[in-house]
Amino acid sequence: MRHAGWFGGAVVLTVASGEVISHIADSRDTNAGAAAGAAAAVSGALRFVQVSDSHIGFQGPANMDVAGSFNEAINQVNSLGFRPDFVMHSGDLTHLSTAGQFDQVKQMMTGMKTDRVFTVPGEHDSIGDAGRAYRRTFGMGTLGDGWYSFDTHGVHFIALVNTLSLEKLGHLGNAQIDFVRKDLAGLPSDTPVVVFSHIPLFAMYPKWGWSTDDALKVIALLRRFSSVTCLNGHVHQLFTKTEGNITFHSATTTAYPLPKPGRAPAPTPQVVPARQLKDALGIRSVGYRQGDRELAIKDQRLA
Questions:
Q1: What is the DSSP track for 228-271?
Q2: Hey, which bits of the chain come out as E strands?
């Protein structure tokens, strides 16, 4: 397993209770990461950014200004020292799925200096209308309930929707799983595959709904590929787990922290001292150079 190769070794990996956990890089790595990014630009490598869980419209003591912290995240993306090939927002763009919140977050994301912006919906983007307002705003060109795939720099990307049929866990459904089956069918097994979803595809903490009940059907389709990376939001904290050829990375948030699994009665917004809030928020940059087996991932606190 190898991470953070040419982004300056930014993700620190430790093993606890048999699972690999990543921590945010120290800010002193920023210059090294930017320099590595500039070098990557010369090589034509892929570099993209993941942001997540902006919860535009949230009002509460855990963060009295989520629009302000999301704007800081956008500024941080624009200050990475390189122009990302794309930015992926991995869900819960809004807090209550109102038209005003969707319009606000869309307008804010136009300020990102990138060639393309992609999204997947979170459960907060589907409140009350099964995701119709989300798809009107962000779903152009997608299939079914908003899923899609694309290729760039030799990597195949799949964006999934697992937030529309919530009983307790995330759910993909047969139509979407069939889409993945057909989508992967013609790909050589040495193609790097990256999968985006809002809710984790692995069983991070099912008691709080931090898992997807039918994800194993998609995982089975991904087993033949030599390198698979699954990136999700939803849990508002960094977590990394590797199972065979598949590595799962949960992203942090730009809005407010949630408790560690099982360390609170419920996954509700956590109030921390104001000076500590930015330590819990951040962005993620990801790089890949053709010929490498795995992606390089760097998580940064909100500056």
A1: EEEEE-SSSS-EEEEETTEEEEE--BSS---PPTTSSSS-PPPP
A2: 12-16, 19-23, 46-51, 86-89, 117-119, 148-152, 155-159, 193-197, 228-232, 239-243, 246-250, 282-288, 296-301
Q: Which two three-digit tokens encode residue 224? A: 């033949």
Token pair, residue 163, equals: 């937030």
> Considering the entire predicted model, what is its pTM?
0.87
What values do phi and psi take at 5, rounded to 5?
-55, -65
**The sheet that has 148-152: what strands, in order across it?**
148-152, 155-159, 193-197, 228-232, 246-250, 239-243
**Beta 296-301 vs 239-243: how paired, if at all?**
unpaired
**Per-residue confidence (pLDDT) for residue 27, from 0 to 100:** 36
- Between 41 and 280, where is the model more confident? 280
Q: Within a 10 A sphere around the Cβ of 21, how many other Cβ atoms? A: 15
Helix, strand, coil in percent for the chain, rounding step 5: 25, 25, 45
SS3 at position 175: helix
Give the model confidence (pLDDT) of 153-175 as tens digits.
999 999 999 999 877 799 999 99
